[in-house]
Structure formats: structure tokens, C-alpha cells
Amino acid sequence: MVVIQTLYGSFKPAVPVTGVTLSKTAATLKTGESTDFTVTVAPDTASNKRFTVAVDKPDLVTLTKGAGSTYTVAAKEGTDGGTAIVTVTSKSNPAATAKLTITVRVPVTAITVDKPTVQGDTKTSVDVTFTVAPTNATDKTLVVTSSAPTIASVALKSGTTYTISYLKGGEATITAASKSDPTVKATVAVTAIQTGPTDDEKVKYYTDNLAKAKAGTYVGKEIKAGVELLEGWTPFDDTGKTTPAEMVAAIAKAGDANINAIIPGDYFTITAGGTTYKYVCNGRDQYYISGDSTNGKHHFTFVPDKLFPTAMAYSTSGSNDWSSSTLKTWMEGTFYNSLPTAVKNSIISLKVPFTNYNGQRSGVASKVFPPSEWEAFGKKTYSAETAGGTPPNNAYVVLSRSDANRKRTGANNWYWLRSARSGGTDYVPYVYTDGTADSYGAYSADGAALPCFNLG
């Protein structure tokens, strides 16, 4: 008998490729730079893990195989840059692919400037032009800055031409750096020659003349264009405005050293309601609280040299509350509307301090207002006012200096203050005909108005 034995062997089925991944999918290279990437085929147990690597723009990048599944892609020198795609495809499963996007950019290698050293008088300017190399650099954007922007400022004029303005005496460096390659720079050495007073000299001008104003020896100047306070210093011309009120407001808003040009006692004239007034500066930042003013800067307080020609009551209701008074309504209505447009547009509303008959202080938003007792006299006689506080209650420099400075001509020759007499609800302090303090019932129609305002 013959026995036949059949043996059955075993075999492994093929494991297909399910995907291809790269260690990076995007890279940006300067011309001449390179980067490596690694190919991974999934699953790790795939029977055939071979793949192909191809680049669509061999004129832009080169591809070199490294160890194992690592490749190096390099951006060629001398190109204009662009985008190349590296594609990796499984040989056994062409649907399994992965791509690497290579952005090639031409770097900035140098920046030059036509004027590496400049010098000029303050209030003048000069143009400089930067040149970026190479001409085919991908990103030729410049970041141009000044090391001392208070001495020399710089601003784009057009293209790569910039304007350097000499602001005050000193030295500065203008630096133009490539935005894409920040280590590549060009510089301009700037020397500004001071042709007018320095900021310190302007401060000294203000300090010295403020002391004279407080002592009563300062002679006020008329605020107008063409006034030269120190040699080369014509601050009112710098504002570019045409009327005195606008000039004052512009200086207040600028908040720069020119703010020291205006001294308590300086003045300008306006006509309102048929009467011509000489409005005199009585102080700077009388009610200023940072962030509280409408412009966030400064303001100047002005008072007139004469009273409004018509007598009127402080309050027809007999109340000595300034915020609801007839006088306030008149000042911010009839009188304000009679002012020239340039003046109205320059007036700002600030919280001026008001202390009621109980001694409680508040800030009343006002555009036009009379002085308080403390401001007029530098002390209290009938009111419960005190200096300082919030808003501040400061003595007017010019008004509080003497009785003679407080005297005004006009209806009945005495005028209301915005204060309340302490301890009662119906009496109001005022400045008597000889400049001294007194008080009277708010309902009296014999008082006059001294309408003050803040410019800023």
C-alpha cells in the first residue's frame, strides 16, 4: 500500500500602504539656504514602503537624498524666488502622497543711503533716500526710526524717500532696517542746530514771568501772530491759527514747550453782544485733572476786563446753587452765543469747583462761569470754600493779587461770584465796587456778570 502525505505550508498576505507623511509640510528659505525633511510611510508593517520624491521646479530648488528616509531641499542662488512643491508618492499605492511647500525668497543683503550725515537748523527738514539691494529682493520694506524723536523726527515721503525734521538742538541717528532681514541696516547721523530757545529756556521764561505776575510787576503782552518772546521763538506763528483764541487753544492742546509762552496777564480782545472785552489770562490748568478735560492736555483761564453792561439776579428763584442758577443759564446761553465763532470753538467745558452753603464741594460742568470767592480773593470770607480739592480750587493769579485787580466797571460796578454763602440757601458772595468782599441775596437784580472761560 502506498501512502501519500500532503503538506500545507503558510504564507503572509501583503500589507498595503495607507499613507505617507512628512516631518514638515511648509518651509521658507532664503536663496542659498536648505532644510531637511523626513518621509514616514504608514503603516510601519507595510510590505512595500518604497516611494518617489519629485520637485515641480528644479530650477528653483534642488533635492538631495540623505540617510534613510531623510532628504535635503535647497533654494538655489541667483533666482528671483517663488514657490516650489516637493511631492512624495508611495510606489505601491499612488493615492498615498504628501507635499512640502517651499517658499523661496531673495533676502535683502544691503541698504545704502544717499546722505549718511545731515545737519540743519531747527524747524527745517531734509529728504534722504535709501536704496535696497538686491533689486529683486522679495521684501524691500523698511522700518525707519529715530533714536531721539524729540530732536529729529522721520516720516515717509514716498517710496524709499523719508523726510527728517530738525526739532530741537542735539544729535540723533536715523536707522533704516530691513523688515524681512532686520540685521541689514543703514544709518543717517543727524545734527540739529538750535536756532531758537531751548525747552529749558522756555521754562525759565515762564517761571520768571509767573513770579512777576504774582508780584504784580509783569506787563501783559497781547496774544497775536508775530510776537517774538525770545530770539527765534514765535510760538503763536507755530500754531498755524489766525485768531488769538484759536492760537491759545492750539498751544494748550499741543502741550509742548510752547505752552510756557502764555503768562497770567497776557490778553486778547473780542467783541460780544456789542461790547469789546479785553480778556486776560488768569492762570494755566486752573481746573485741570488728567483725563478730565475734553482734550486730555491743558487749558488757560481767561477773565474779562469789564462787566457785562446789564445787571441781573444770581438766581430769580433766590437759591444760591450755582449749577441751577439763572446766571449760569445766561452765561452759557445768551453770552456764549454772542461770542465770535473762533472763540466759541476754542472754549472747553470743564468741571469747575462749587462749594454749597453746607461746605460740600462738587464739580459743575461749565463753559462760561464767574470766579469763586477763593479764586477771587485767595481766601474765604463768606463761603465755606478751601483751596485744593477735586476739582482744584486755586486762587486766580491776577484777580487775587489786590483789590484794585478785582475792581471792574459795568452795571452797578459789583459782580457775582459763583460761591454760596455758608450757612444759608439764598445769599451769594460778590466783589464790591472797591474790590472787597461782600454778599447779597441771590434774588437781587442789581448784580453784574463777569463771564470767564477756559480755552484749550
From TrEMBL:
SMART domains: BID_2. It holds the Pfam family DUF6273. Coiled coil: none annotated. Residues 16-100, 107-188 form the BIG2 domain. This is Ig-like domain-containing protein.
